[in-house]
Structure formats: C-alpha cells, structure tokens
Amino acid sequence: MNEMAVPRPNNLDAFWMPYTDNRYFKANPRMLARAEGMSYFTPEGREVLDATAGLWCCNAGHGRREITEAIQRQAAVLDFAPTFQLGHPLAFEAAARLAEILPDGLDRVFWTNSGSESADTALKIALAYHKARGEGGRTRLIGRERGYHGVGFGGMSVGGIGPNRKQFGALLPYVDHLPHTHGIEANRWSRGQPGEGASRADALEALVALHGAETIAAVMVEPVAGSTGVLPPPRGYLERLREICTKHGILLVFDEVITGFGRLGTPFGAERLGVVPDIMTMAKGLTNAAVPMGAVAAKDEVYRAVVEGSPGGIELFHGYTYSGHPLAAAAAIATMELHRSEDLPGRAKAIEGEWQEAAHAMRGLPHVTDVRDCGLIAGIEMEPRPGAPGQRALDVFRRCFDDGVLVRVTGDIVALSPPLIVEKPHMERIFGTLSDAIRAAA
Predict the structure, then answer these.
(1) Packed helices 326-341 and 344-360: angle between N→C axes, nearest 10 degrees
(2) Are residues 347 and 336 in the same domain?
(3) R_g of the chain computed on alpha carbons
(4) Model pTM?
(5) Fewer CB atoms < 10 Å away: N or C end of the chain?
(6) Per-position b or e across 237-267, b if 16+ CB within 10 A of its CB
(7) Rounded to whole angstroms, how far apart are CA atoms 387 and 306?
(8) Which of 340, 360, 380 corresponds to the end of one domain?
(9) What is the 3-state secondary structure (H, E, C) of the chain?
(10) Does residue 11 fall inside a structural domain?
C-alpha cells in the first residue's frame, strides 16, 4: 500500500524562481503573504505599499471582493470546460463584454492565458491572415529594439531586450527590428509624449525597401514600452507606423498587456494615443491578475479572412487547454464591471496630473538622469555605477521594499505603475520613500 510521502520542509529550494537572482533571494528572501487595497503584507504583517500594481496587473487594487466572489461562485458550478469544439456561456459573455470596450473595429476575441501566449497567438493570426488571402509569402515579422512581448519564442524573437534572448540561441527566422525611441537628448524630462522622434518610424520604410513589402506580415510594438523602462511614443510616431503599415498591407499589432485596462486613463492605449491597430494583445489587468488570462482582439476583416478563407473544418490550428477557462472568464467579467461601475480609467485620468508632478519632482536627485511618464506610469532613470550596471537601481528596489514600498526596476530605471485607486497620500509615500532610497544609493 502506497503511503503519502512526508512533505519536504519549506526551505525555498524547490521553487526555481522566474526573472530572479535565485542565489541572492534564497539567502535574503523578501516575501509577500497577503494583499488588500493598495498594499501587500509580509508574513510578519508588515505593510508594503504597492507602487507597481503587482506586475502592472492589479489595476483595481488588491483583494477585490467582487472578483473573489465571482470566482468562488463559478468554481462551485463549473470548474473547467474545454473550448475545443465545445463551449460554455461565460467564455462568450466575457468576449462580448470585452468587445464592447475595445476600440472600434476590434471585435473578435481569442482567449489565451498570458501576455506571452497572446503575443505568439497574434503573430500566428497575422501569418494565417496573409496565407488565407493568398499572400503566403508574407512571413517576416517586425519588432522593435527594447520591445518586450513575453517569453514565448515568437514574442521573444520580435522582442528586442538583449538579456531575454542571448541564452537561447537561434530564435524565429525572418524577423527584423525597428530602432527604439530612447536616448533622444531633446526628449529628456518630457511630460507625457515627447516631441522628438516620430521620424524613427520611417525605419519601417527602409525595412520594406530591404525585404520587400510582399514579405512582411506584421509589425508588433507596445504603445508605451513598459518593461524596458517606460518609453512613451514620440508625438506622431504611432500615427506614422499606422500610415506605413496601411500603405504596404502590413498588419499593425499593439501589445497592450501593460497599457490596457485603464493604465493610460482610457480603456486602452490605442484610444489615448489615437491609433487603432489591426490586432491587439492583452492580459494582466483583464482579470486584475486574480486568475491568469490573456486575449487577442482582431479586426473583423482579419477574422473573416481566416475563417471564411478556410476550405472547411478547423480554420486556425491553434489554441490552449485553458482558453476561456470558466474561472478566468468569471474574473474577467467581474473586473470589467468594476472598471465600468467605478470608472477606473476616468479615475486614473483625473489624478494623472498630480502623478506627473510627483514623478518629475525626482529631477535633481543624485544620479537621476531622466524622468518619463504617460498616464499612471512613470520611469525614473539613473546613471549606472561604473562597472556595475543595474546595481544602483537594485539597491533602490531593496531599500524601498525594506522601507515599505514596492517598486520595480529594469536596468537602472525605476518603473512605477500603481493600482488605479491610488490617492494623493499614497503618492506622497511612494515618492518620499523613493527619494530617500535614491539618496541612500548615491
């Protein structure tokens, strides 16, 4: 008779942590045990104010009863249902609710489980679209330097952050990259969208000339690049990308995993920035991170080309076991209802000016070289220490956590993205604690 093995002691060894210095962490753990509203709490009960919405995802704040109860109710009724040749009502209801708030024309929704899956799904849809239209030679995918589109091989290939790529050898073939928009001297200390750099979109014309428009399927960019250190698009940049893509029959894909669900003061960044893509990816704020879920929205013409262009049977050989999972769908519906009833995008927009002022007050602190903001996002860039890039910001992160505020760092940039329920006292504490940490790291 088999006996249940005695559990191992919880000595932190078993969990291989993602994007983490495992050796350092397991010698110096910083743990979170509970969350509510604007705050996390450590196992010892110490409060840590969340200035990052978890990982850009808990936009409605933590522990929202409405979402928790929706998940509980659904778990008691239908824990799982496959969506391969079958369906369940909530998957369709959630898609219809999402289509209502998406930018005009983006009304076909494919469910995934994460931003990484959404990125790869969007790229596959783009390839399938061109093939269905008789342009199967359009296999080239264009990303952007310093872009982040998750960790699948598709998103990683079009992404442009070196450390995310260098360990893994050959990635997807037929990929090229646009230049990033960072480092333009005239744009330092910009508030909102910077003024210089729209012409960098013209690099797409150069890629068209190099490869031929007939080979390019899609261009994928983040409306505001987040994980690389908060890079708002220069004024006119996205408009120019849209113009060039339309001119050459190239699909424009927006990765709105970070900018979606109120982060820029509108439901999606496309509305705030005035440019509608052909395909949009999303995740994170979709369920307020209560259950993993992502989605890809496509224009009706993209959907129809793939579905009606199929000779019959399955039109897109792609999907996930958990696409449209019942618990995730319930969480998404409850989250979207919270955004509607509390007007969380409007709330973010209303406090954006105070957020911007507080962020730019960091100018003049030791080694701070730039401050950038867009909506309720801010990036504070610091001069690297000689011979130790990234260490200064890492010291700031650790000092902030120990002093009761959670920030995020990428390289030597501190990235801030609080829940949209943030209020002025929270901002004062966030930036006060951050100021002290930056001075201590000088």
Answers:
(1) 70
(2) no
(3) 22
(4) 0.96
(5) N
(6) bbebbbebbeebebbbbbbbbbbbbbbbbbb
(7) 51
(8) 340
(9) CCCCCCCCCCCCCCCCCCCCCHHHHHHCCCCCCEEEECEEECCCCCEEEECCHHHHCCCCCECCHHHHHHHHHHHHHCCCCCCCCCCCHHHHHHHHHHHHHCCCCEEEEEEECCHHHHHHHHHHHHHHHHHHCCCCCCCEEEEECCCCCCCCHHHHHHCCCHHHCCCCCCCCCCEEEECCCCCCHHHCCCCCCCCCCHHHHHHHHHHHHHHCHHHEEEEEECCCECCCCCECCCCCHHHHHHHHHHHHCCEEEEECCCCCCCCCCCCCHHHHHCCCCCEEEECHHHCCCCCCCEEEEEEHHHHHHHHHCCCCCCCCCCCCCCCCCHHHHHHHHHHHHHHHHCCHHHHHHHHHHHHHHHHHCCCCCCCEEEEEECCCCEEEEECCECCECCHHHHHHHHHHHHCCEECEEECCEEEECCCCCCCHHHHHHHHHHHHHHHHHCC
(10) no
CB 401 within 8 A of CB 40: no
Contact 112, 128 (CB under 8 A): no
Residue 394 belongs to domain with CATH number: 3.90.1150.10
Contact 213, 250 (CB under 8 A): yes
Do 266 and 350 lie in a common domain?
A: no
- Write out pLDDT tens, residues 313-361: 999 999 999 999 999 999 999 999 999 999 999 999 999 999 999 999 9
Are 405 and 414 in contact, with CB atoms under 8 Å apart? no
Alpha-carbon gap, residue 39 to 59, rounded angstroms: 12
Predicted pLDDT of residue 1:
45
Q: Do residues 323 and 364 share a domain?
A: no
Round to whole Å and give the CA distance between 416 and 195. Answer: 22
**Residues 279-323: pLDDT tens digits?**
999 999 999 999 999 999 999 999 999 999 988 899 999 999 999
Domain limits at 423?
22-63+343-440
Residue 233 and residue 127 share a domain: yes
13 in a structural domain? no
> Final residue of a domain: which of 281, 310, 340?
340
Q: Name the domain count of the chain.
A: 2
